[in-house]
Amino acid sequence: MNHTLTIQLSGSEGAVIRTLGLIERRGFGLDKCSVGEVDSSGRTMKVQVSSSRPGELLKRQLERLHDVFHVELKPAKPTKPSRPGIRPVNPQNR
Amino acid sequence: MNVSTHLAPELRSGSQILIEALERNGVKQIFGYPGGTIMPVYDALVGSGLKHYLCRHEQGAALAADAFGRVTRRAGVCIATSGPGATNLVTGIANAFMDSVPMVIITGQVPSPLQGTDAFQEVDIFGITLPIVKHSYIVRSVSDIPHIVNEAFQLAENGRPGPVLIDLPKDISAGMGDVVYTPPQAWPASCPPDAEAMQTAAEMLSRARRPLVIAGGGIAISDSVEVFRKFIDRTGLPVTSTLKGLGVIPPDHPGYVGMLGMHGNGAANHAVQNCDLLMVVGARFDDRATGQLAQFAPSARIIHLDIDAAEISKLRKADVAIVSELAPALEGIRPEQTANESWRAQCAGWTKEFAWRYDAPGKGIYAPKLLRDLSRARPGDLTITCDVGQHQMWVAQHCQFNDPLQHITSGGLGTMGYGLPAAIGAKVAKPEATVVCVSGDGSIMMNIQELATLKRYGIDVKILLLDNSALGLVRQWQEIFFEGNYSEVHLSDNPDFAAVARAFGIQARSIKEPEEVGDALDWLLNTDTAAMLHVAIDSMENVWPLVPPGKPNHKMMRSNS
């Protein structure tokens, strides 16, 4: 599934890499990313990710970061993941 | 003429400002190790109100701070220099992250102009630790120090606790500023539990025929033990516990079926696999607890209570989720009726059927019985810190905990070497407790240098070292799952551990016969200084039961035959 997220985050040092790192670490392939300029309210990052894991879960994991102020998740489009990335949570394989 | 009494703000170093901010946040003890870039902080430490414990490896300092945080529910503080000092903290930081432990880590860093130049002892500890911290900072201005320290403590301790790292370049710690400390604003209160979800949960509990509760470590972390016990007494629901939930319910409670999971009790695993409603309180469906996830509690609907929304439906879909502090949710869930008698009787029957037995054949000292005797010797007063391996599972199975803070164990990360520094942190946090580090011959060697810390500060920690001359749990798996192809697990060339302890100035005794156990435990617990009891046990002893990897929890092996 492809998920598109718009993330409002802090402009502070490390916020972008912390956010992108979490996305890949939690099993979502990063297909597209654009990072806006910092202004008085921080900055906006738009990402398109692919994973068999639910986008809602990534949204909640992102919202847990102190650097992240708000996350908007667009409804998923069913597609094949473009990259294998971390394997999905498949209980049969554990 | 009036003379103004207002004095110009005093010019102080970043390190002095840091020390004040730590003190203002209630810190009295810190664990650490000095070195090049953190030297300005160590300079400011002299004469401050902070008691510094010099551990003999930065990992020891981080793990001691972790245990201090668990016992006090306030952030434990550790401090180290840049480069290897900082990287040596990493295992301790990950340990705290995995077990949701409040911790504040302060690392020295090379001066800002040298950052990014591969300077001596420069590593990007901010980058290295990104996946294992709740949050982190690089301080860029002396004036930011009080605010960052305040926020670090608030983040570490509020919500789901975790480690927060502050990387402090030397030009900042040595730089001067006229910064006046201002206290932090109050942390916003968390949202109350959702009333509709609580009502739905109550209705589900009323309707369920075979309801069961999992008590997780979050109950201890959030100091909700009493509220949880009242909930269980009010509802009469049967309860199982995760590794970190041990002690949340007294082990002799009539509805308690024991710990679930890979090395859990048969009663707990059968209850979980047969329940039709599972209420999970402050736990996260860890794979060591669930066994094969697809067949975990296959007939159960799930009610999940957690402070962390990201845990909801991460591994098992929740039918009802309540994201809030646990106590108000537990108080608000009021089922009209719960648990029919036949289900309770069935759980009680399993508890009786799977009660631990201590009549194992064999001539040598049987570790499970020894651990049961240890915990009976000082009920209520004992804090046990564990290392990782067979002994850790035997402690979980056979020691009786009436309070979760009596059991300090590395759950999520499974850090060999945790036990001894954790015992130091626990004893510093709670000097009146009898703190026993139960360790193994593999684990103790991973932080054995901390014997010097015990001696240096006269920290009265008792060490019970179960020595099977092997990396026992790995050996057990090689025996069962790798057809006895033993690879790098034999430790028959171990040092004489009692002699090692004595070399550090710690009293020690060795035993190997069952009839020596009673007297030796008396000696260990009644010695008024740190002491080690070294116990030789059978190297082929295994931990039973065992749920093989990839199997559901009711497919427990009880022996290797």
Oligomer: heterodimer
What's the level 1 CATH class of the largest domain in chain B? Answer: Alpha Beta
CATH architecture of the largest domain in chain B: 3-Layer(aba) Sandwich
CATH superfamily of chain A: ACT domain
Q: What gyration radius of chain A follows from the Cα positions, in whole Å?
A: 13 Å
Count of discrete alpha- or pi-helical segments spanning 4 or more residues of chain A: 2
Task: Please name the two chains that share the biggest interface, counting residues whose Cβ lies under 8 Å from a Cβ on the partner chain.
Answer: A-B, 21 and 24 residues
Q: Brief description of this entry?
A:
By secondary structure, chain A is an alpha+beta fold. Chain A has helices at residues 15-25, 55-63, and strands at 2-9, 29-35, 43-50, 68-77.
Description of the structure:
- The complex is a heterodimer of chains A (94) and B (561).
- Chain A has 94 residues and is an alpha+beta fold.
- Chain A has helices at residues 15-25, 55-63; strands spanning 2-9, 29-35, 43-50, 68-77.
- Chain A has a single domain, classed as 2-Layer Sandwich (Alpha-Beta Plaits).
- Chain A is built from two helices and four strands; from the N terminus they run βαββαβ.
- In chain A, a hairpin with a 7-residue loop joins strand 2 and strand 3.
- The two termini of chain A are 22 Å apart.
- Chain B is of the alpha/beta class and 561 residues long.
- Chain B has three domains: 12-177, Rossmann fold (3-Layer(aba) Sandwich); 195-353, Rossmann fold, CATH 3.40.50; 367-536, Rossmann fold, CATH 3.40.50.
- Chain B has a six-stranded parallel beta sheet with strand order 3-2-4-5-7-6, sandwiched between helices.
- Chain B is globular.
- The mean pLDDT of chain B is 95.
- The interface between A and B is medium-sized, with 21 and 24 residues.
